[in-house]
Amino acid sequence: MIPNVAPAPADSAPATAAAAVQPKSGQRAAFSKISASRLFASPGGVAGVVWLAALVVASLTAQWWLPYKTEDQDFTAVLSGPTAAHWLGTDELGRDLLSRIFAAAAGTLGTSLITVIVGVVLGTALAMVAAGRGQTEGGISRVTEVMMSLPGTVIILAVIGAVGTNIPLIMAILGVLISAGIYRVMLGQAKSLQSQLYVDAAKVDGVSTLGISLRHVLPGLTNTIVVQSALIFAVGMLIQAGLAFIGFGPPIPQPSWGGMIQGASQHVYDAPWLMVPTGAVLALTVLAANAIGNALGKAPNTGVSHLPSAAARRQRSVAAGAAASVAEAGAIPAKGHLSVRGLSVGVDGGTPLVTDVSFDVGPGTVLGLVGESGCGKTMTALSLLGLLPAGVSATGGQILWNGKNLAAATEREMEGIRGRDIALISQEPMRALDPMFTVGYQLTAAIRRLRKVGKAEAHAEALSLLEKVGIVDAKRILKTYPHQISGGMAQRVAIALALSGRPRLLVADEPTTALDVTVQAEILSLLRSLVKDTGMSVVMVTHDLGVVADICDNVAVMYAGQVVESGRTANILDNPRHPYTLALLAADPHANTAADMPERLATISGQVPQPKDWPTGCRFMARCQFAGSACAAPVPLLPSGSEDGLVRCVKADELAVEGLEWLATEVPTHRVLKIVEKDLA
Amino acid sequence: MSIETAERQDTAPVAPEQPMLEVKDLLVRYGRGRKAAAAPAAVDGVSFSIRPGETVGLVGESGSGKSTIGKAILGLQKSAGGTISYQGKDITYAGAAERRALGGELRAVFQDPNSSLNPRQSIGASLAEPLRIRGVTAAVAREKAEAMLERVGLPREAVDRYPSQFSGGQRQRIAVARALICEPKLVVCDEAVSALDLSTQAQVLNLLADLRDELGLSYLFIAHDISVVQFLAQRVVVLYRGQVMESGPAAAVTESPKHPFTQALVAASPVPRPAEQAERRMLRESLGVRTAAAVAGSPGGCPFSQRCPLATELCASQRPALRRVGAADVACHYA
Fold it and tell me: How many other C-beta atoms are found inside a 10 Å radius of the C-beta of residue A504?
């Protein structure tokens, strides 16, 4: 049941937290700031940078500080260990190892850099061409496949045979060979960048293919380029040392790391120390390059890594529940009755996302939770199932289901309730279905698990469930994979899956938002008939007031984490009491027909405030056309006078008497300005 | 196609002979080779025209080809046949250089405010790009960008900020600013408000309407939501599986639809008035339109025939031509 219900991030605070760590200044500056902070956040990265920097400085200034010339021979100290005269010892001809290692460093690093530049530039350029001009991709990919299948060592040895040991040329050819791999890495990324809408926008501008590649694709690749460069740098150094080891290094008296290791290998029994300094320097340098690559390649910190594990979450919810469950409801509610009392949901360690939400859902009724994104409606719905995202938990209040407080239930208890008593259908039906398995397999597996029945019985039940959700050729659909069916069909299957545990309450999170209106109408009709036939109740999260009018018996309008108005659907939509409900209806083009379509739609200036900016008074005050000084004090949810309706507005009665309308005024610029600045602060 | 005058004369100036945009028998196929040629075309013989200052709405379900038509007009999708002419000039196969020569008169606003702006470019750089490639100096481009931001209701200082610092609605305003900065004559809005919340959607719709009235713009407004289209458009073209089902004045098409598909589409769009919605639901259920999961019609016939309550053998074998029914053109044998 409920396989992989990824919490919708739209309403969640972690998402805004992630947005907050986005780059804040100039494009290159922003990039280097991110890489630099990532680099210096890891100890390995710091060590790598320090070592490489020291090596580069030391080798570039070598001619001024080296104690000996590289060819100077000291026959008094042949194959010596570290001494005061020779800090790192000497080789078989009495040459100073320290001097030779650092004299060779510049050449080694420089020529490895050639490999990096040739490989990365060629690979990236090919990837950008292939991604920019689709028709060239096939050709380029075939060529790189051939390149990758060529034995690199043989080619390099052939080049050495033909032109001699020209190290820069050999390293450049190595770069060409490596570029095929880089191309592979870059191509996927370049293609996904090419498919962005801003690339389409640039094409509409008439920006040339080259311009698009340089301005819109290349900046997106920089991070990968840096990481790949660091890794190839290490590979280049190793291959170069390997070549020198087998005798294809710089001509003999000239020092090279590989050559020195080769020399040391001949004295491995009589002078084992000889191997140590050169080997250590080579190993450390390769390690440094890899450490830098690793540090840069780590996924950017999205600010959620510090969040507690699921286990910690379970414990806490128990603790919170123990504190909150003291006030058990007086009357035992009817079976299949959901009663939410004063529910609060918040990010652990502070920010509230939903505060003091109360509503009731009786058996066989449909409640609509309606509001704009960021109003907490999804968080409220997910808390009913104990499926709040990591780092977010119910911080107070009760969710009473059959007399049991779900806000205090353990994860284990919730596992017994989810799918059996309370089921979920989400906005994206495809996310509820595993693409690797057939519809039939997923459906029968859920039925067998939830109803403890045999295979044959589960299969028959799956067929009848699919027929129940209005699928005509159920037998065929059972054999299909999720990608083979349309979105509307997938939502029907997801509903069948949700019904497999015979739930008494269905939480539907924007179940029709991603569907065409004709399909939406069919799904709503299906839900209506299921409610009628099974007596199941539904909590329907939606932003569409038309959907509310169509299917909901009761509605709770949410704004900035609070219920601002609730009651019977007909009362609320036909006679709204809260200015926010009034404004939403006035802004909805569906509320008008072509004949009475206004010149301008009503709007609500500004946007829903972030949880951290919620005022103590009315949370809608800053955007309300009717706000006054009385609105600055906290506003209770009071009876609105129509049946069991509630409204959270101090001016509700006054407005009802005056019969005010939400006017279609344009957003005053100064107000937008103020809001933007508040966002940036 | 249709040359009758729009009902809402107030925003449509007297039509000159030359349309702003004319699409004739447009054919678009996805993929290449024999397999693609055998599959039904994504856009199959669509024709319509937009007069100067007029807004034409393209509505249809997903897979109806409405976005593909927009892409073909913008040169983002190759056409397999037919012609697209902009002010009498054939631009069906225009390359980047020719499009640049159009001087930024033909512009676009896309659906997703998150991906329609390059996250690594400042707002100023994004807005200046279309000007800079036309040789405008950096200083002038910046000044224009600031003025345009102010025009769409954002502070001038926004030029130095990055897309991630703005909300969805603000980003969509920036996308509108980017489209309008080269003083275009025609803007293709592809689901430009679909990803926005109600109140923000209303703000952007008002902005588009204001700019149209002020600058005399023409819009091709592509959306799945017929009510949104009806707010902005004077004429509506209804598409189903790549073909035009009905086209005509917005009021006629949405208030008294003639084609069974348009009727189903209008009846399925819910209104936020419970009593009226209950009536609409009864009406919709009485229409007897078969489920959207039904298979496509036979290639020779009407694409809607498998779902249509009126369908006969004629519909399965012969594709109905557009004909005038009342104020609209309808492709149905029985309308």
Answer: 21
- How far is the C-alpha of A558 from the C-alpha of A566, rounded, in Å? 9
Q: Quick check: A523 pLDDT over 80? A: yes
A27-41 and A43-60 helices cross at what angle (nearest 10)?
A: 100
| Contact at CB, B154 and A593, closer than 8 angstroms | no
CA–CA dist A543, A545 (Å, integer): 6
Question: Whole-angstrom Cα distance, residue B321 to residue B318?
Answer: 9
A205/B130 Cβ within 8 A: yes
**Helix (H) or strand (E) run with residue A34 in it:** helix A27-41
Residues of chain B contacting residue A211, judged by C-beta atoms under 8 Å apart: 133
Tell me the nearest-neighbour CA distance from A650 into chain B, angstroms. Answer: 23
Q: Among candidates B206, B203, B213, B215, which has minimal Cα distance to B179?
A: B215
Tell me how far apart the alpha carbons of residues A646 and A658 are, in angstroms, rounded to a whole number.
19
The answer to whether the Cβ–Cβ distance between A486 and B150 falls below 8 Å is no
Q: Residues B78-124: pLDDT tens digits?
A: 899 999 999 988 999 888 788 877 767 888 998 877 788 998 899 99
Distance CA A366, CA A555 (A): 8
Q: Under a CB-based contact definition with an 8 Å cutoff, are residues B86 and B50 in contact?
A: no
Do B272 and A591 make contact, defined as CB atoms within 8 angstroms?
yes
DSSP B129-161: HHHHTTT--HHHHHHHHHHHHHHTT--GGGGGS
Say if the Cβ atoms of A521 and B268 lie within 8 Å. yes
Q: Which residues of A touch B97 (CB under 8 A)?
A: 206
Please say whether the beta carbons of A543 and A510 come within 8 A: yes
Contacting residues for A441 by C-beta, under 8 A, at least 6 apart: none
- Superfamily covering domain B20-105+184-330: P-loop containing nucleotide triphosphate hydrolases (3.40.50.300)
Taking contacts as CB-CB distances below 8 angstroms, the residues of chain A near B267 are: 521
pLDDT at site B10: 44
Q: How many angstroms separate the CA atoms of A565 and A558, rounded?
A: 7
- Work out the minimum CA distance from A149 to partner chain B, whole angstroms: 29
Q: What are B3-23's pLDDT values in tens digits?
A: 444 444 444 444 456 899 999
Task: With cut-offs at 50, 70 and 90, classify the pLDDT of residue A208.
Answer: confident
| Residues present in chain B in total | 335
Asked if residue A518 lies in contact with residue A550, where contact means CB atoms within 8 angstroms, the answer is no
Provide the sign of the torsion angle of the four alpha carbons A279, A285, A286, A288, taken in this order: positive
Nearest-CA distance B81 → chain A (Å): 20
Using CA coordinates, name the residue in chain B closest to A610.
B167
- Where in chain B are the domains? 20-105+184-330, 114-183
Query: Smallest Cβ distance to A573: which of B111, B197, B273?
Result: B273
Query: How does residue A205 score in pLDDT terms, banded at 50, 70 and 90?
Result: confident
DSSP state of A630: G
Please tell me the pTM assigned to this model: 0.78
Distance CA B82, CA A572 (A): 51
Are A518 and B107 in contact (CB < 8 Å)?
no
Q: How far is A566 from chain B (nearest CA, A)?
A: 15
Q: A529 contacts in B (CB within 8 Å)? A: none
Nearest CB to B154; choose among A22, A588, A676 = A676
Can you tell me the mean pLDDT for A567-596? 87
* ipTM at complex level: 0.85
**Token duo for residue A136:** 């060239």
